[in-house]
Amino acid sequence: MKDYFKVDEWKIIEEGFAPGYNKVAESVFSLGNGRMGGRANFEEAYSGDTLQGNYVAGVYYPDKTRVGWWKNGYPEYFAKVLNAANWIGIDVKIGDEQLDLAKCEIIDFRRELNMKDGYLKRDFKAKTESGKEVEVEATRFCSIADDEAGAIKYTISPMNFDGEITLTPFIDGDIVNKDSNYDEKFWDEVSNDIRNDRGYVQLRTKKTGFEVATAMKFTVLQGDKPVEFKSDSIQKEKYIAADIKVQARQGEVVTLLKYAANLSSQNYQSDELSAKALEMVERISQKGFDTMLAEQAAAWAEKWKHNDIVIEGDAAAQQGIRFNIFQLNQTYTGEDDRLNIGPKGFTGEKYGGSTYWDTEAYCVPFYLATAEPKVARNLLLYRYKQLGKAIDNAKLLGFKDGAALYPMVTMDGTECHNEWEITFEEIHRNGAIAYAIFNYTRYTGDETYLTDYGLEVLIAISRFWAQRITWSAERQLYVMLGVTGPNEYENNINNNWYTSTIATWCLKYTLQVIGKVKEANAAKYKDLVSKISFNEEVECEKFSDIINKMYYPNDDKLGIFLQQDGYMDKEQILVKDLPAADRPLVKNWSWDRILRSVFIKQADVLQGLYFFEDDYDLETIRRNYDFYEPRTVHESSLSPCVHSILACKLGDIDRAYEFYLRTSRLDIDDYNNDTDDGCHITSMAGTWMSVVEGFGGMRVKDGMLSFNPLLPHKWEAFSFQVGFRGALLQVIVSRKAVSIKNISGMGVTVKVNGTEYVVVSGAEACSVPH
Amino acid sequence: MKDYFKVDEWKIIEEGFAPGYNKVAESVFSLGNGRMGGRANFEEAYSGDTLQGNYVAGVYYPDKTRVGWWKNGYPEYFAKVLNAANWIGIDVKIGDEQLDLAKCEIIDFRRELNMKDGYLKRDFKAKTESGKEVEVEATRFCSIADDEAGAIKYTISPMNFDGEITLTPFIDGDIVNKDSNYDEKFWDEVSNDIRNDRGYVQLRTKKTGFEVATAMKFTVLQGDKPVEFKSDSIQKEKYIAADIKVQARQGEVVTLLKYAANLSSQNYQSDELSAKALEMVERISQKGFDTMLAEQAAAWAEKWKHNDIVIEGDAAAQQGIRFNIFQLNQTYTGEDDRLNIGPKGFTGEKYGGSTYWDTEAYCVPFYLATAEPKVARNLLLYRYKQLGKAIDNAKLLGFKDGAALYPMVTMDGTECHNEWEITFEEIHRNGAIAYAIFNYTRYTGDETYLTDYGLEVLIAISRFWAQRITWSAERQLYVMLGVTGPNEYENNINNNWYTSTIATWCLKYTLQVIGKVKEANAAKYKDLVSKISFNEEVECEKFSDIINKMYYPNDDKLGIFLQQDGYMDKEQILVKDLPAADRPLVKNWSWDRILRSVFIKQADVLQGLYFFEDDYDLETIRRNYDFYEPRTVHESSLSPCVHSILACKLGDIDRAYEFYLRTSRLDIDDYNNDTDDGCHITSMAGTWMSVVEGFGGMRVKDGMLSFNPLLPHKWEAFSFQVGFRGALLQVIVSRKAVSIKNISGMGVTVKVNGTEYVVVSGAEACSVPH
């Protein structure tokens, strides 16, 4: 719903409560700190439509796969993101009446996500059935400083009565996973305990055996004064709570401060989990809510200092980009190489798994430019550590000799997707993983990664391609049969240009890296050759042969690359000719009709031209863009950003701006009517790309950053920071000039609109008229 | 397992009990009479591995579809064949010990399916844990004369003791459906009752509301003498039983005769079902077991008189063909146009639905030649009655204006298959339905069917094709994108030669039938035109245009039709080069690998050449056969028969014989290791075809039967009967001669090896040297 949330440069604001839109709001207002997070569910009971979700990073469950018709090669299990114990809950009773916004009259309601300081605040006035009015204010955050903890300040005040209010802070581990295939519950209890003002629930996941202890401690204030209370503890399986009864007078504010911690056996011994969790809530409660909130604001200020994109003259665009950057930072911090960026982050459980090719194709560039190199490096290492499983996965499909196929979706390296046309055929994902290695090296200049880890992955991927192609005796060329490209609205096609192109690119890059590594560290290379039984002579010759004899479909008359064999047999109609009622196609057309049509879900040939733009002249890119974009329905959240970047490259600033708005406000405006399930986290990195690589025109080539900026008509100016090889630059693009400030101590040479400038530390070292 | 069952020309015999093979035996020994039937489960309790199945024709349940990833256009429900009340059960206790062959020592065991007389007999000797030995003989059949009834004679005799034996005949409606998607039970109880020697259970299916009353009556004999007994009735939900205690002496035979009936609300008012069922068991028990069994033998003799195929000199081949004919007759009698031929008949529940294109492509020819024309006509009418739903089904996929797509799998006309590459794309099934109309008319000469029903179906199917093709501006021809041909080892391919060929054949045939019907009955034609809003001028012109401008892939160098675009890009290896361990591919290769390979599941181009052989010269057929057969893995039960017929046509008698054996003994030898789920009923009609159309070389052309027989080397002779337009012929092919006896009163002209002969009634009217 467009315009549901108020436009504000630093906040997302909901004024008035729309129950039908609550799940969208819960997604948009989600909180996270990279280690834990959850949806913006209410603290108090809510019997209306809600999707409850609290998540602990890296904790998953291999749910038994559900398919209609089993195909050989399907994984037996599908790793699910797990809804974990609810730590935010505070039941409220006013006299005998439960406070439940689905059952009260809501007089006033406001929810606000403060992106600047990193907290969620909700205040409302409500009238119970018996006519009692209360005012509530709830502030909550997942702490960055204490990243296993969260805190809530919940205040309630009787507006028209004196009387008893019961506050019941609780931890509830008896939760459901909406996405469970067989309605199973995934957690067993290990233990629980509660004593007066503190307690914990420790749970263990079935099968995977992850343990998480969720502890809470709480204090109560009446007015400003702490209340001495003796609470009634409640203990059930997977559940603890305490009833605190307060006699409140009209106008008086009763405050519950709830401190919570989620500690996982990934980081502690299981047998000390609950003690450590209790220690942590003790420690943060000593620190106190206000101190924690101040630390939170400071931590976010530090993030924004490096991450922020400022847009002048377009508050909606400003809000959009900040929301994307905020969510990305909430989802992944890069501190733990076991974690990755799930498509829904901590905002929902849909899709399962945490890792898609989105990470390599969309998120790596964001973290490369906005965080320390180790963050992107950790994302690469994540895949390196899963290489063995990628080799196993390829084996399951009949490949051999160390060929690796990375999974389409995974949590721990095991494939958990099960749709043959995707799982077995959307193999271009292997290319994106190789591309991320290239991208990391290109950006950081750190070639040690290639020697230590990268080459091993590259060879395994190249081995896959070398077995996956087919020699066509008829064409006397290699062909790539039976694939699904990034455009998933085509299945089981032959010679998808993008897949074939990225496949041979992988082979070329692998050959190049072999050369580099041999030169840089012959001993390590020799170790690797022996470790993976690499027959350099034979295998490299095969790689070269494929590079030289690969078939790529194209249309000479139109001067374009063909998305796949037979694409021109389709009826050549354009998106603009589609009736509005038919959109989105995926909800209105049968699958076969979509497949037969020319319509493209997301950049496919254009994804290749984006990745490998230097290999093609501008007119080739333009012809392909002009041909394919009008056939693209952008029904993937990953689509508009690539088009925005290409539109910028081609000088089409209006289309670029249109694509930008669509990608940056996708969730705020619930553009695809699916934000209720969670936000589209990975495409948010694409939004960042569309500003920095699109409007900013930033590229890295030959170890140098370059910028070719364009300014959308509506904007006065925009600016962003990027880190590059030790330097930190602020790029400001206004009507008048492109200014590059070096806000670090390290000088750097950049190109602006084709000319090289040395940018030294200090104010406005480089300003180029625009 | 080859050679598990003993070879016998009229029987299937199992000697000794192999628990691991029990489910295969249960399938092979299945009984049915077209209205009810079931697997050869034991009467007494069996705690070993078994698949219980009793089925009532036409009763089904729309189980909620289970898919991994929902695609727009999928049906919400999948009609399942329902396991119905167990009417065969007789629990047996010897003293306090339950008779259970999984827990006894089996001294002797023999099961025998008597195909000549149509019953199942099992006898065994077993020793209980305490050492008591008993001899049991159980004979059971589903009556043809009383086709809602079955009878069991169960005798038990103590071999080494005197003592109490408790016989507990029961009816149990609390059964499970192994194929249920969500482990649901599909039957609710309406009522049950039991009084001394008779009782019933009446059940109602959830959702569909079919009611079935299953009644039993029983009598007991000690030696030859009826026993007066007072049984203890047991009544539970969905269950009735009676305990009958008999004091038996060593060597004495105790006999329980159990008469049962299954009456369905398809044929009676629900409120009279149980009364009628009780009446029926009363009536048949009056008749008595021996009389019923004699009637059964007589009914089967009548069937065999017209259906039998006699093979001399090859008992295994003889047993094979009789088993196929026996099962076909058990499955479908053609008396009820609401019924059809499920792929498993009454032998299992797998696959669900009752109707596949198998019926039209494989079964119609069998029933045309071996039964009254009304049988095949009823199969045609079944589809005619479902035309409305076929139009709805097409609408769901985006087709309009009366275009019909018949379902891939159905029970009542609604699609219940849910695999996009099949459900939405294996559209050649529409062609088979049109072909059956052509086949029926060609065989019977009855053109009134076209006027009354056939043309309406043909136009709806042609309308579908006219919308399903795509005009390729590039080729300036019509193409057929995104289909799956009969070879399901290719999905979502373009321009499958078979599909495109049968599509234009449908259009041509429709145009031809329009001409015929206009001439034969202008008034009815006019009514039809108005009923279906047929714009003859515009639509026929479109049909003609497609016929004239259709693209068919072929390979000029090889002189073959190409299975689909791009087929020659595949690695051209042959089945003979596949390692044995890789077979069957479907169990050993991942799906993408199968799809990329040249390997063919079942006749595809060759299916077209079989259907439309007159349109191609013999050398074209040979080139295609020589190219495709070596690439065919025959992993569908429908594959060998078509190849056998083509091999005969091409004079390759050895290959033809090999294919014949494979198809005819598929279930007896459990060739594909999947007979435990049930027999492959529809392919049994293909077996018949491979004898009559293959070795017999029978064809119908210009209203005349012709024969071009070949005799496999191993056979001395073979003979079969066919009915043709009122005449009944027996064809005997021996080393010396082809003899055609007219065993009806009506003369007929036939061609043998190209020469016409008039065959009049009487002995050996025509004998042609061979």
Q: Can you describe what's shown?
A:
Chains A, B: Residues 13-265 form the Glycoside hydrolase family 65 N-terminal domain. Chains A, B: Residues 698-759 form the Glycoside hydrolase family 65 C-terminal domain. Chains A, B: One of its GO terms (molecular function) is glycosyltransferase activity. Chain A is an alpha+beta fold and 770 residues long. The first copy, chain A, has four domains: 11-305, Distorted Sandwich (Beta-galactosidase, Chain A, domain 5); 334-552, Glycosyltransferase, CATH 1.50.10; 554-676, no CATH class; 696-770, Maltose phosphorylase, domain 3 (Sandwich), CATH 2.60.420. In chain A, strands 1, 9, 10, 11, 12, 14, 15, 16, 17 and 20 form a ten-stranded antiparallel β-sheet that branches. A five-stranded antiparallel β-sheet of chain A has the order 8-7-13-19-18, with no helix packed on it. A five-stranded antiparallel β-sheet of chain A has the order 21-28-29-30-33. The longest helix of chain A has 24 residues, at 497-520. The first copy, chain A, is globular and about 85 Å long. The two termini of chain A are 37 Å apart. The mean pLDDT of chain A is 94.
How would you summarize the topology of this molecule?
The structure is a homodimer of 770-residue chains.
Chain A: E1 11-15, H1 22-28, E2 31-32, E3 36-38, E4 54-56, E5 60-64, E6 77-81, E7 90-94, E8 97-98, E9 105-114, E10 119-127, E11 133-142, E12 149-158, E13 163-172, E14 187-195, E15 198-205, E16 211-222, E17 225-226, E18 232-236, E19 239-248, E20 254-264, H2 273-287, H3 289-307, E21 309-312, H4 315-331, H5 358-370, H6 373-385, H7 387-396, H8 420-423, H9 428-444, H10 448-468, E22 470-472, E23 477-479, H11 497-520, H12 522-531, H13 536-548, E24 554-555, E25 560-561, H14 585-588, H15 591-596, H16 605-611, H17 618-628, H18 639-649, H19 653-664, H20 681-695, E26 699-701, E27 704-707, E28 717-724, E29 727-734, E30 737-742, E31 748-752, E32 755-759, E33 762-769
Parallel strand pairs in A: 27-31
Antiparallel strand pairs in A: 1-9, 2-3, 3-4, 5-6, 7-8, 7-13, 9-10, 10-11, 11-12, 12-20, 13-19, 14-15, 15-16, 16-17, 16-20, 18-19, 21-28, 22-23, 24-25, 26-27, 28-29, 29-30, 30-33, 31-32
Helix pairs in contact in A: 4-20, 5-6, 5-9, 5-20, 6-9, 6-10, 9-10, 9-11, 10-11, 11-12, 11-13, 11-16, 18-19, 18-20, 19-20
